[in-house]
Amino acid sequence: MITGLPQASSDAARIDILFHAMLALSAVVCVGVLVAIVWFGIKYRRGSKADRSGRERRNLGIEATWTLIPLLLFMAIFAWSSKLWADLRTPPANAQPIYVVARQWMWKVQHVGGQREINTLHVPVGHPIRLVMTSQDVIHSFYVPAFRVKQDVLPDRYTTLSFTPTRAGEYELFCAEYCGTQHSVMRGRVVVQPPAIHARWLQSHARQGLASQGAQLYRAMGCSGCHQPGASVHAPDLHGIAGRSIAMADGSTRVADDGYLRDSILLPRKDVVAGYQPIMPSYQGRLDPEDVLALIAYLKRSDPADGPEQPSP
Ligand code: CUA
Question: Do 201 and 111 touch, CB atoms closer than 8 A?
Answer without folding.
Answer: no
